[in-house]
Amino acid sequence: MKRNQGFTLIELMIVVAIIGILAAVALPAYSSYQASSKVTAGLSEISAGKTAFETLLNSGGNVTGPTDIGLQVTTGNCTIGTTASTITCTILNAPTQVDGNIITWARDATTGVWACSTDLAAADKVKYAPKTCQG
Asked: Is residue 61 in some structural domain?
């Protein structure tokens, strides 16, 4: 009786080809997931400063920098900046699709309402922006 001594070369080549096809599909999807996750992380970092921003303005102060509202200037996800009515995040350490893009929380001085925007408005980049911050 003949025993099976292992896989043939053809069988191994088929398995390698299947793995290659799966990797070719999965890598772009993973990169897209990483890009949208980085944008969401940056948005969450600057969103934390809105309450402190309001508190400082309501007590008669002015916002001159991120440290005034308890935010770091640079984090693992973004470089944070502020003006008298905005908090911005310039995305860092991200996939090339979103690296260097800016997320902005802008406060309307009259109504006090915050509005989120990004510069990801190009048709190929809008998919990376959170649904609540579409440009």
From this structure: yes
